[in-house]
Amino acid sequence: MRRSLLPLNALRVFDAAARTLSFTRAADELAVTPAAVGQQIRALEETLGVVLFRRTTRGLELTPEAASAIPALRTGFLAFEETIEALRAGQAATRINLAAARGAVRHWLLPRLDGWLQANPEATVQLMVLDAPVDFAQANFDLALSFGPTPDAEGVHGKALGEEWLVRVARPDAPPRTIGWQTASEAQLKVADAGLALDCALAGWGEAEVPLTLAAPYIAAGQLVERGERVQSADSYWLCAPAPQWKSAKVRALVEALLT
C-alpha cells in the first residue's frame, strides 16, 4: 500500500478502540460519536480484509489478527510522535540562516541583531551578504533583508521596514564632494553600496544620498546633517522569506525583535 493511501485516521481510531475495548469510550477519547468510531472500524476492516473486533457477552474482544498487530501499530504511532517533536524542536531552535543586503548589514542589521543575540545567548546566526536579489530557490535562508521593490518571487512574502526616503547627508564640516553608489554618474567617489557611502560620509569625505533607514540614527545623534530635500524612494528594505518560513517560531521571533 502506498504511503499516501495509508488509512492513518482509521488506524488511530482502531488504536483507541483496542485500548478501551469500547466504541463509546474510544469515541469520548477522540471527541467523535460512537457511530463514527464504528464506521471507521468497518472501513478499516474492508480495506485490510481482516476482522478486528468480535462482540461477546462481556463486550468487545480483539481478534487474534488484531491483537498481533497492536504492538507494531503502537510502535509506529510512537515514531510519529517522536518525529513531530523533532520537527517542533527544529522550528523552535535558534539557529538562523540569515541573508542581508550588503549596505544594511553594519548600519541597520547588526545593532538590532546584537540585542537579539544578547537576549538569546544560546542562538547562532549564519549571516550571508547579498550582492544580488535573494533567490530562496537556490539558497537555504530562513530570512533575508533585501533592498528593492516589493518581493514578487513566487511564494515569497515580505514585510517592509517602512516607507523609504533618500536623504543627502554629510558631517557638518564636510566639503561639498559627492559620494555615489548604484549609478550616480556625477559622484566624485563611487562605492559599491549605500553602507559604504554612509561610511564615507561619516568619515567626513563628503556628502552621500543614502536611504533614511540607514542614516536616521546618525542624524538623530548629530553626527550627520541633511543637505537638501528628501526624495521618496521607489525601493525599500524588506524582511522576506517563503511562506512556510513565516510559520516558523524562530523566524517570527527574530522578525519581531528586528522591527521593535
Overall description:
This protein has 260 residues and is an alpha/beta fold. It folds into 3 domains: 3-91, Orthogonal Bundle (Arc Repressor Mutant, subunit A), CATH 1.10.10; 95-160 and 235-259, 3-Layer(aba) Sandwich (D-Maltodextrin-Binding Protein, domain 2); 165-232, D-Maltodextrin-Binding Protein, domain 2, CATH 3.40.190. Helices cover 45% and strands 23% of the residues. The protein has 9 helices and 13 strands. It has helices at residues 8-20, 23-30, 34-48, 64-92, 102-119, 194-202, 212-220, 243-246, 249-259, and strands at 53-56, 59-62, 95-101, 124-130, 143-148, 156-160, 165-170, 178-180, 189-190, 207-211, 225-226, 231-232, 236-242. Strands 7, 8, 9, 10, 11 and 12 form a 6-stranded mixed sheet that branches. The chain has a 5-stranded mixed sheet with strand order 4-3-5-13-6. The protein is rod-shaped, with a radius of gyration of 30 Å. The model has no long low-confidence stretch (mean pLDDT 89).
Keywords:
alpha/beta; D-Maltodextrin-Binding Protein, domain 2; 3 domains; 9 helices; single chain; 5-stranded mixed beta sheet; 260 residues
Residue-averaged pLDDT: 89
**Can you tell me the number of structural domains?**
3
Major beta sheet summary: 6 strands, mixed
What is the CA-based Rg, rounded? 30 Å
Q: Considering DSSP H and I runs of 4 or more, what fraction of the residues is helical?
A: 40-55%
The CATH class of the largest domain, by name, is: Alpha Beta
The class by helix and strand makeup works out as alpha/beta
Give the termini separation.
Answer: 51 Å
User: What's the total number of strands?
Assistant: 13
- Under CATH, the topology of the largest domain is which? D-Maltodextrin-Binding Protein, domain 2
Q: How does CATH name the architecture of the largest domain?
A: 3-Layer(aba) Sandwich
What's the tally of helices? Answer: 9
Query: How much of the sequence is in beta strands?
Result: 15-25%
